[in-house]
Design goal:
alpha+beta, Nucleotidyltransferase, domain 5, Carb_kinase_FGGY_CS, single chain, globular
Length: 530
């Protein structure tokens, strides 16, 4: 039985998708891009102080092991031979910062998550040192100086955590974003683990020159980062090392499988949506919302609050592609907040039911600026507000307003993208966990006033990582030639309200955004550690 099954399926590719709120491992058929099996585990976020967001790097690693193990068990139940898994790709939440000890393999502090705001005063003191007429940080990295990126988080760890300082002095410290921590651990850790990252993840650290594609000495000096703790930068599709898993793992069956794809989650989704042509774009609805548009081989700098970032480089000798990115900090996170902090829903899926009951926010607007505002404002002083409340407002209206907020924020970054590119998008390709919410998708089409198009297999982030891994030199089981890419079935949502109503709602949203700004004056609960 198993033997005949094996012949039918051909080579498989696995993908680790380590997101902000959960970890998954997924296995695809490399010839048809069909998802065969997967397993998902939610990750704890810790909020030790207001504005601080941390995760335990060991919990993240164990969640990866657990997902691999459970997926392999599920494949076994389907009579699929896991020795057919020929490569593994990694996709990850970007910017989140880990420093660990290469001798013991232990993290020296919790992972400081991209959403974390503790570095605001670090950002303010650094920005005073950038000459007004020569913003070398932005011109080299494509990024605004913000709490969002890794360099300031690493600076904070070096300034405030004695264990990190000591390990750096004793040359035991390694820094990495989540991809580096996972690849190092999965390729053996203290026993010869490979310390590397790819160009897309490196481009989110603020230490990487996106033109020369290497760590930048001037930037490392500016942030005071010792270059020897940085990982080696590789392309997004090449063999980094082989799986070498500790004996504790039942998934030892994957021992020796190459890890050969690595992309930051938003780049992975761009690849998974097959946005390989200039001007193709996708919007991913995860913890945050990220709209990326492929700008080809040239860096396009935004005049409207978007980032310039590395989209992908699919092979050592392949050209690099760039993207413009609109980043929204809080999308799915607002649903998790309604669930965990307010308790008005028990599961994230329930939000659709509440919103459906009222079908309108009834004049209530929710600006979820929990981590300040990202694109297009880059306003760290903003905080979340719910306004337009009356005695009539109930939890259903707030649920509806939360979904609308995700759509309005997407409209703001889409408008910025259209202004920067000059060619308005005729439709929006979407993916990510929230896209299973039909009310959200219809609202999004109404608020953008263009069709929203969603692939029937929403796991495009994992698919992108699998494609990069399977296409790598030395693996070669996944063809990225346009004629070989499998056609994807899509679901379309057409706008159903009139344009005028859409505009009125959007301009009221903008009024609400203005009210959320200037809320916080610099406070510095930064120094010292709880």
């Amino acid at each position: 039985m198993a033997a005949s099954k094996k012949a039918v399926l051909g080579p498989l590719v696995g993908a680790v998708d380590q997101g902000t709120s959960s970890t998954r491992f997924l296995v695809f058929n490399s010839k048809t891009a069909e998802l065969l099996s997967h397993h998902q585990v939610e990750i704890k976020q810790e909020f030790p102080r207001e504005g601080w967001v941390e995760q335990d790097p060991k919990e993240i690693l164990h969640s990866v092991y657990e997902c691999i193990e459970k997926t392999c068990e599920k494949l076994g139940q389907l009579n699929i031979d896991i020795s057919n898994i020929k490569a593994i790709g990694v996709s990850n939440q970007r910017e989140t910062t880990v420093v660990w000890d290469k001798i013991t393999g232990e993290p020296l502090y919790n992972a400081v998550v991209w959403l974390d705001l503790r570095t605001q005063s670090t950002v303010e003191s650094l920005s005073k040192r950038i000459p007004g007429n020569n913003n070398f940080v932005k011109s080299k990295t494509g990024l605004p100086l913000s709490t969002y990126f890794s360099a300031v988080k690493l600076r904070w760890l070096l300034d405030n955590v004695r264990k990190v300082q000591k390990a750096v002095e004793e040359k035991r410290a390694l820094f990495g974003t989540i991809d580096s921590w996972l690849i190092w651990s999965l390729t053996g850790g203290v026993n010869g683990g490979v310390h590397c990252t790819d160009v897309t993840n490196a481009s989110r650290t603020m230490l990487f020159n996106i033109h020369s594609l290497e760590w930048d000495k001037q930037l490392c000096e500016f942030f005071g980062i010792p270059m020897e703790i940085l990982p080696n930068v590789r392309s997004s599709s090449e063999i980094y090392g082989l799986m070498k898993i500790s004996h504790s793992l039942k998934a030892g069956a994957l021992e020796g499988v190459p890890i050969s794809g690595c992309l930051g989650d938003q780049s992975a989704a761009l690849v998974g949506q097959m946005c390989f042509q200039i001007g193709q774009a996708k919007n991913t609805y995860g913890t945050g919302c990220f709209l990326l548009c492929n700008t080809g081989h040239k860096c396009v700098f935004s005049d409207h609050g978007l980032l310039t970032t590395v989209a992908y480089k699919l092979g050592r000798d392949k050209p690099v592609y760039y993207a413009l990115e609109g980043s929204v900090a809080i999308a799915g996170a607002v649903i998790r907040w309604l669930r965990d902090n307010l308790g008005i829903i028990k599961t994230s899926e329930e939000i659709e039911k509440l919103a459906k009951e009222v079908g309108t926010s009834y004049g209530c607007y929710f600006v979820p600026a929990f981590s300040g505002l990202y694109a297009p404002y880059w306003e760290p002083s903003a905080r979340g507000i719910i306004c337009g409340l009356t005695q009539f407002t109930n939890k259903c209206h707030i649920a509806f307003a939360a979904l609308e907020a995700v759509c309005f924020q997407t409209r703001e970054i889409l408008d910025a993208m259209n202004r920067d590119c000059g060619i308005p998008l005729s439709h929006l390709q979407v993916d990510g966990g929230m896209t299973s919410n039909k009310i959200l998708m219809q609202l999004q089409a109404d608020i953008l006033y263009i069709p929203v198009v969603k692939p029937s297999m929403p796991e495009t982030t994992a698919l992108g990582a699998a494609m990069a891994a399977g296409a790598a030199e030395g693996v070669g089981v996944w063809s990225l030639e346009p004629e070989d890419l499998s056609a994807v079935t899509m679901e379309r949502f057409e706008p159903q309200i009139n344009a005028e109503e859409s505009e009125i709602r959007y301009s009221t949203w903008k009024k609400a955004v203005m009210k959320s700004m200037g809320w916080v004056t610099t406070q510095s609960p930064e120094s010292g550690i709880p």
